[in-house]
Design brief:
Number of helices: 11
Largest sheet: 5 strands, parallel
Distance between the termini: 43 Å
Strand content: 5-15%
Order of helices and strands: EHEHEHEHEHHHHHHH
Radius of gyration: 17 Å
Helix content: 40-55%
């Protein structure tokens, strides 16, 4: 059973999320909070697997709440899905950099929401290429250019760097395999090596690393 915690300052949004989640046989809502500060306090004494975190809230926003929770709880704590709207996309990238495992638009349909919760609970980031492409289209274009950090990139082999570049472009494992003329299981093996070598926990963090090191430049 996947235990979900809701952090959103709108009671109506929380009620809608709870209704959808509690109707599923494999997940349940274990708690709610109306801002990031209350969320931090309640999550500390609640066993949760996934947190649905609004980005803009009073007292403590979702970006800072995510950062503080992950600093406090690390891998032992729940994983975070950031909830946002198109108008707030500039907050998504900082939330992902703070350690969130992905993001969803608030108007996502129930199937997308439930699929995202299941994916994150199983250890995946959400959701490989479509969410990554949305991130690149609506967020990355607003980022300042990052200087190239050769010291970190130098640790990667040519093949690892090539695969990282394809991931940052939002391509699926199958698309990467086709582009590089390798088998899809080989792509998965290299992704595991990249996460281990760079100490990054999921695909979203690989994308952020690619931007932060200047391997990929934001589109203008």
């Amino acid at each position: 059973m996947t235990r979900v915690f809701l952090v959103d300052d709108q009671a109506l949004v929380r009620a809608g999320l709870r209704m959808v989640i509690d109707a599923q046989p494999d997940m349940t809502v274990v708690g709610e909070a109306e801002d990031g500060r209350e969320g931090l306090d309640r999550i500390a004494v609640t066993t949760a697997d996934v947190v649905l975190m609004d980005v803009r809230m009073p007292r403590l926003d979702g970006v800072e709440a995510t950062r503080l929770m992950i600093e406090r709880d690390g891998d032992a704590g729940p994983r975070v899905i950031v909830l946002t709207t198109f108008d707030l996309d500039e907050y998504v990238f900082p939330a992902l950099r703070a350690g969130a495992s992905g993001f969803l638009l608030k108007n996502a349909d129930p199937e997308e929401l439930l699929g995202a919760i299941r994916a994150v609970a199983s250890g995946d980031a959400i959701v490989a290429p479509t969410a990554t492409r949305r991130l690149l289209e609506h967020v990355a274009s607003t980022l300042p250019d990052a200087p190239v950090d050769d010291s970190r990139l130098a640790a990667l082999s040519d093949r690892e760097r090539a695969i990282l570049l394809e991931v940052a472009r939002g391509r699926s494992n199958a698309e990467i395999a086709a582009a590089l003329h390798i088998a899809e299981p080989t792509v998965k093996t290299y992704l595991g090596r990249l996460r281990t070598k760079l100490d990054l926990h999921d695909r979203v963090q690989l994308v952020i690393f690619a931007y932060d090191t200047g391997l990929v430049a934001p589109r203008r």
